[in-house]
């Protein structure tokens, strides 16, 4: 094809590239007296502020929220809501109820899959692997003989005659439970796209790291050592490492462990790096780390405000890099937004999703 013909096709739309959708930060809060709100935040509008605690520094969340969710009546036994993401959807799972799926790309709210009965009355972790959502629930107080529920949710093709039933396309599969008997302390998806690593305690005072192969549905014990971060770790290709938040408020990075690796040495982890400065705010209640791609992260920090009915949410966006000495550093272009929000569910931890 000649250059002239190619340019004509491009002007006619034949060579037009589809623009990538602009991503946003979706913040899930219990700031509504009747339930939960999902706020859609444009990260490009963040601005740096000082560390002052004055009310004038607080910003306002976008109004109205992208979605408000009213769960079943509070008097229902063990009524709770958990949130997870898969693709462009944010799922809300409610005890003994059909789940809901909010599509961040289209703004459509639809009926999702009914959570399995063994998932209720517990707490745990969820992680998307490809187009499958894996949920590991710890429910020791309700079933001490079988403390874990391990389930996988995926979307199955729906026959044309069944499309009037919106939940037919979602299915749950029960997976082999882990050998450990406690909640998960830290976890991360391996860059092979199939192996989930988890650290937990398998005895009264012994910690160990396990992995689950999502292709073969098999568990593997890797030894009496722990992943060096708390909560979820995120793989960053530029750093070629897992990145996470440690329990003292530092950011750490560590090499990815091979799925075949085993080590009997306790507390072993090679070449773990940590930032010199803490990133936690003062008087924090709980902090979580959200990965935004390309070595960019957002810290969601819940700060006590001396009130059971309100707290401060601080969103801190930052980048990471290695110095010429190989040290892990937070880049200078860090920005923070602070919001004072109502609090209606004492045990709920605010979540942020980058979609």
From TrEMBL:
Annotated organism of origin: Panicum hallii
Stored InterPro entries: DUF1668_ORYSA, Gal_Oxase/kelch_b-propeller
Protein name listed in UniProt: DUF1618 domain-containing protein
Annotated spans, Disordered: 1-22, 47-73
